[in-house]
Amino acid sequence: MIAEILKGTVDGDPSVSVSTFAKIEEGHAGALSFLANPKYEKYLYETDASIVIISKTLAVERPVKCTLIRVDDAYQSFAQLLEVYASTMSGQAKSGREEPVVVAETADIGENVFIGAFTYIAANAKIGSNTKIHQQVFIGENVTIGDNTVIHPGVKIERDCKIGNHCVIHAGAVIGADGFGFAPQADTDFKKVPQIGNVIIEDRVEIGANTCIDRATMGSTIIRSGVKLDNLIQIAHNVEIGENTVIAAQVGISGSSRTGKNCMLGGQVGLAGHLTIADGVKIGAQSGLNSSIKEPGKTIMGTPATDYQDCMKSYVLVRRLPDLKKKVDELERKLK
Description:
Blueprint: H1 2-6, E1 9-11, E2 20-21, E3 31-34, E4 51-55, E5 67-71, H2 74-89, E6 96-97, E7 102-103, E8 108-109, E9 114-115, E10 120-121, E11 126-127, E12 132-133, E13 138-139, E14 144-145, E15 150-151, E16 156-157, E17 162-163, E18 168-169, E19 174-177, E20 182-184, E21 190-192, E22 198-201, E23 206-207, E24 212-214, E25 220-223, E26 228-229, E27 234-235, E28 240-241, E29 246-247, E30 252-253, E31 258-259, E32 264-265, E33 270-271, E34 276-277, E35 282-283, E36 288-289, E37 299-301, E38 306-307, H3 308-335
Parallel strand pairs: 2-3, 3-4, 4-5, 6-9, 7-10, 8-11, 9-12, 10-13, 11-14, 12-15, 13-16, 14-17, 15-18, 16-19, 17-22, 18-23, 19-24, 22-25, 23-26, 24-27, 25-28, 26-29, 27-30, 28-31, 29-32, 30-33, 31-34, 32-35, 33-36, 35-37
Antiparallel strand pairs: 1-5, 20-21, 37-38
């Protein structure tokens, strides 16, 4: 059955069964593993896993104890199986309502929706078909959530926000809290600027645990289709994240900045406000940007961020500074 799902071919016992997953180096009887990285190939001949997914092009040089399933792309095929498994473990097959829940009379709930205990759905909210809303979720007034979306426990979606189809929002995420807007006053105090916009999250977006996406001051903060956000990310008001961009943990993006399509931001990257990042830009971990990147496909790193190769050269020079200082001090003594 597994081979049929993956459209692969079987080498070995086609009747073998598995009940769990394991890394190939930790494989045991009844487990399914995969081999995608060549540096782990030695474990193929040592593993006790019952089934291993491998590439069709891999030449097996020695006998193996496991059954092999050959596929076009071992990593993608393994991910496909994990997705099937996760859907059964995460309650995606659930429907109906646990108790207690509060659902406003004016809320529009689609077919086959699951609503977990202690969830609150406010007036005029609209929930699409086959969507799963787990325990202790808050959904504010006029919120729209599309079909086949999964909202994990403890998520807060504030008023007027819009969530697309096939999205996943992990535990503790906050969508639509006020943007950080304060106007300085003559007496050095600050006056709060009302945040009257919303957040729009398009289709196939995944948002990690405890990530915060602020509502716009006016208009919308927008997360485009296919974006993947890690845990603990801060996205400020009026930001726009381009299609299929991936952002790692602890990134902070200041207000009104925009990233293009297919960008990649490493962990702890910081963007100043009102910047524009071109399509396909890659930004190395812990980089800080205070100016826009207009060249598509560029790779940058450092604080302030510069071209990756230039940054690496600078790091080499920085490491040599203690030796250079000793030489300068020695020359000064000789000159005296």
